[in-house]
Amino acid sequence: MPTSFYNGIENNTNPTRNALWVSLSALLYGVKGYDSGMLNALQAVPKFYEAFPQLKTDSRLLGTTTALMYLPGLVFPAFGAWLADKVGRKIPLLVAIFGAIITPIIQAFSVNLGQLMAGRFLMGMFSCVGAVSGLAMCAELSHPRFRAQAMSLQLSMYFIGNILCSSTSYATIAHLKQSTWSYKLPLLLQLVLPAICLPLAIWIPQSPRWLISKGRVEEARQILANLHANGKLDDPLVEHEILEVENAIALEKEQHVGWLSLLKTKANRWRMFIVVHSAAGAQLNGIGIIAYYLVPMLKVVGITDSKVQSQLLIGMGVMNLCVNTGATYVVDRAGRRPMWLSSTLGMLISLIVITGTSAAFTKNPNPSLGSATVAFIFLF
Predict the structure, then answer these.
(1) d(CA 46, CA 239)
(2) I need a labelling partner for 349 at 20 to 30 A (CA). Which of 104, 119, 283, 308 fits?
(3) Which positions carry the signal peptide feature in this UniProt record (predicted)?
């Protein structure tokens, strides 16, 4: 439903309550951002390679350790969605947050590479389940007038988490370089954001959509009234939202909507192709090279100082945050398709330049080639 539809309905929103639930969902993406940047940041910490020397000498092990964080994404998002529909969004969310508090302890105090890898796999598993429930809660509890902005805020929080990770690693390099805490502390601090999320998740109401799907309409009405109408049960917006959800659920039951429905009709197959194509494109466009192996890339072009590497990681996170936040406010004006196509073209050009300049540097170690590589990494 377009945002303009709600302009004619009286706005009785409770902004404080809405902000709390949006903050919880956004913090979950901050957790994901911190976790995703962790191994990249740790590659700039000398003591990390001393503790796990296999990662320095065997690129396959480094790639496997990096991938283990994302391997659960092949299975657990579907499991998380099924669980959220079965028992509600709140229980999977709490389990995921609790897991995200425990697994950093496993990683920080790992005595061998196997334990570190197991910790990363478990973190990825809990992250998948939490992301599914968190996204659903954000969409279902946010006021429709600013739901799009609330969803976009999550990616901004992802980059804030990434910046926190890089900053923590930089601080430990600066002050704890000769101690094993230079890599243990950033790993351990992964639990801080989930620990902040935990009390919010305990307090968060159940999903109104899930309650309506279970026939608990009055409970859903009370939650929507509290969040969107300052407790006014007969508010027109509340009535409209309940009717909208009831109609959507009835239509799903009538059409027997399930996973196979994605492939049953030509239109659905086309939609599925667009979803898979755009999602795969977002992961296979070269972003993984920079997101997970920026430190080795910097070493290739002559930047070997661990402090400088960490500073560039922080700078990359800050730039990503600024660009993403700015894009959030212009996407409705500029259009999603033009922004997607233009950014994809820009990434292609940048990646070509990065490949060329870094390859040229290996043959002719000219500082200007290294600087050009770094500049286009930022543009990428």
Answers:
(1) 59
(2) 308
(3) none
Q: Which domains does the chain have, with CATH numbers?
A: 1-204 (1.20.1250.20), 286-380 (no CATH)
Residue whose structure tokens are 């930089």: 170
Distances (CA, A) of 352 to 65, 139, 222, 371, 379: 27, 38, 55, 15, 12
Distance of CA 341 to the CA centre of its chain: 22
Q: What confidence tier does 373 reach under pLDDT thresholds 50, 70, 90?
A: confident
Query: How many C-alpha atoms does 144 have within 13 Å on its Cβ side?
Result: 20
Q: Would you state the structure tokens that stand for residue 92, as one six-digit string?
A: 């999977």
Q: In what helix (H) or strand (E) does residue 189 lie, and over which residues does it extend?
A: none
Instruction: Give percent of the chain with pLDDT exceeding 90.
Output: 3
pLDDT value of residue 271: 81
Which token pair is 268?
């659905």
> For 6-25, how does the pLDDT look when each residue is reduced to its tens digit (9 = 90+)?
455 555 555 555 666 666 66
What gap in Å lies between CA 70 and CA 120, rounded to an integer?
9
In this structure, the chain runs to a length of 380
Model pTM score: 0.80
Question: From CA 242, how far away is CA 257, in angstroms rounded?
Answer: 20
- Burial zone of 365 (CB within 10 Å; 0-12 exposed, 13-18 middle, 19+ buried): exposed
